[in-house]
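Example with several molecule types.
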Amino acid sequence: MIKLLIRSATIVTFVGALFAASAQTTIVWSFWGDPGELPPNYEVIEAFHAAQDDVRVEVQHAPWGAYFDRIQTQMAGGTAPDVMFLNNIPSYASRGVLMPLDELIERDGFDTSTYHPGLIDVFSYDGQIFGFARDNDTNVLYYNADLFDAAGLAYPTADWNWDDLRSAALVLTERDAQGRALQYGLALEKNRYPQWVYQAGGTLFDDPLAPTSFHMDSPAAVQAIGFIADMILEDRSVPSFDAMAQLGSTTELFSTGRVAMVMTNAARMPTFAEAGFSWDVAPLPAGPDGERANTLGGAGYVMSSTTQHPDAAWTFLTFLAGTEGQSIFASTGVAVPASYANPDVADAFVNACVEGVSCDVFIAETERGRLAPNFPDWREIENTIVVPHLDLIYTGEMSAEAALTMMATEVRNFMAARQ
Amino acid sequence: MAVSTNGDTGQPTPRRRTNRLRHRTTLAAYGFLLPNLVGFLVFTFLPVLAALLISFTNWDLLRPPEWVGIANYERLVSDSTFHRVLRNTTVYVLGTVPIQMALALLVAMALNQRIPGRTFFRAAYFMPVVASTVAVALVWRWIFHADFGLLNSALYMIGVSDPPNWLSSTRWALPAIIIMSIWQQVGFSMVLFLAGLQGVPQHLYEAAKIDGASQWDRFVHITIPMLSSTTFFVLVISVINSFQVFDQAFIMTEGGPANATNTIVFNIYRYAFQFFQMGYAASMAWVLFAIIFVVTVVQFRYQRQWVHYD
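Resulting C-alpha cells for the full complex:
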C-alpha cells in the first residue's frame, strides 16, 4: 500500500515536472541597436532567465534602418514580437497594434511613480498606458574646460541663462583672416527647437499629445527661434545645421576640439571620454525669464496586441521596466534611465558615469523635461511644414516672425483639414 | 489565310510543316523568355498595378485600406509641397541631362584618341558610376562645405570673396546636387558614347578629310549623325533615371533646406514610410509614372526626325 502510494506519488511528481517543463513559455523580444549597444540587452535576458523559470526570451534584432519595416510587416500580418522596443507610441497605439496595460498594472500593482509623468503620458494613448520608456533623451551642456581656460572664461554654471551662453559662445569662436570659423563656440542639434521654445515660456501646441491649437507664432516662440538664428547668422558662433551635417556631427566637432560647447545627450560620453582634454557637463541655461526646460521622451517597451502569451510578455515587460532591468541599462552610463526617481536606478547611472563628470546634472535635468509634440499626424506636420519654415529662418531668408506666422497658418489649415 | 489552306486536300502541305516548325520555335522562344517574364510579372507588373489600386485608397500599412476614389489625386492638385517637388525634379532633369550628355560625349571623344593612359582615364571616369552613392554623397558634402570645402576654397583662391553656402542655401542646394549628379553620371554615358564612336567607320572621316572638311564639319556631319542612335538611347535612359532621383536628396540634404532639394521620389518615400500614407504616396508614384511615360513617348515620336539607324 505504502509502496503503491510512493509509486503513484513519484508518477504524479514526474508528470507534474513534465507539465512544468512544457508550461515554460517562450516569447519574442525585438530591439534595434548597433553591435556596441547590444550587450546590456543580453545581460537583461540572462538576469531574467536566472530570476524565474516560466518564461524564456528569444531575440529578434535588426539595425535601426531595417527594424521598423520588419516590425510594420509583422504587425500587418499579426505576427509582431510579443515585447517590442519602439518609439512614437501614439502612432502605433492609434492603429490598434499595441496592448493596453492599465488592467495588468492595476492587477499587479506595478509601480509607475518612479517614472517622469510625462514619460508615462508619451507612452499613453486615449487615456490608456501602452508601455514604459527605457531611457530619456536628456540634453545637457557639455563644455571643453581647456578651451574655457584658454579664453579666460569661467565654466558654465547652473545659474547660466541664454545671455551667458550667447556671450560665452561668441568669445569662444575663432576665425581666420577670411572670417571662416576655425573654432565654434557652441554646437546645437536641429531637432531640439521645442526645448528652446519652452525655455522662452512658449509652447508648440496647447497639448503636445492631443493638440487642438498651435502656438509657434507666439512672441515667446519667435524669440526662441530668433535667438538660435541670431547665434548662427549674426554671431556666427554656432555652425549652421547643414554645415554641421557636413562636418560630421556635434560629437565629432566637440571631441576634436573644434567647438567649445555642445548640447546633446548622455550617449556621447564614452566618445568624449577618449578626447584628450578635460570637459564636464552643466544644466541647460535658463530662458530670458528664468524658465528651465529639457527634452522629454525616448524609446521604450510595449506589448503586441496580438501576443499569444500576454502574461509571459507582461512578466518580462515588468522585469525590463522594473528596478533590475532599468538598473542594467542605467549601469551602461550612456542613457539616463526613465525611472530615474527610483534611487537604485539613479545610482546605477551615476556610478557608471565617466569619472569626474557631474552626472547628477543628467538626473536633475531629466526632472525638467517637457514633452515635445507626439501624436499621429506630428511627423507629417513637422517634416512638411515646421522644418521647411525653420530652414528659411536658419538660412536667413526670412525673419523668425514672418516665417513662424506663415508656419502657424499652414499648420492650422492642416489641422482644420484633418478634423 | 493560314487556316483556309487546311483541309481541302487532306494532305500536309509544306506551308503547314513550316507553320508547325514556326509554332515550335515560337514556343521555345517563349520558354526562354519565361523566367524573365515571370520575374517581371511578379516583381514589377503586379506591384505597379497594385500601386494603382492603392492610390485610390487610404492605407497606413496596418489597418485595412479604405477606398477613397480620386481623393488622393485631388489632394495632389492643391498640395504646394508636391508642386515644389515637381518643379525641383524638372529643374534637376533639365540641369543634369543636357550637361551630363555633352560632357560625356566630349570625354568619350577625347578617350577615343590614342592618348597615353587611355585605359586609366576610361576607368577613372567610370569609377563614380560604380561607387556607392552613399559614399559619394558623403565626400561631396565635404566638398560643398561652405567654409572649408574644396569647392569654396578653390573659389576663394580665384578671388570669389563670397562663395555660395551650397547645401545650406535654398538657392544653391539644388545646383549643388545637380553638379554632383553630373559628375556621377558622366561615366555611364561616356561608356555608351565610346562604344558608339568605335562603330563609326573610319573611311567616312578619311573621305571627308580628302574632300577638305574641317574637324568641326566632320564632327557635325559625321560624328553627330552616326552617333544619333546612341545619343537617343543615352537620352531616354538619362531622362528616366533623372526623374527618379532619390539618393542624393536622401543622403545629402534630406530634401532641405526648406524643400529646396526635395524630389518626387524622396517625397514619395517620406509619405509612404515616414507618414504611413501609402495611398497618397502611390498616387504620387503614378503621377511620376505618367510623366516619365509621356516624356518617353514624345522622345520616341520625335526620334524619326533626328535618329538614323544605318
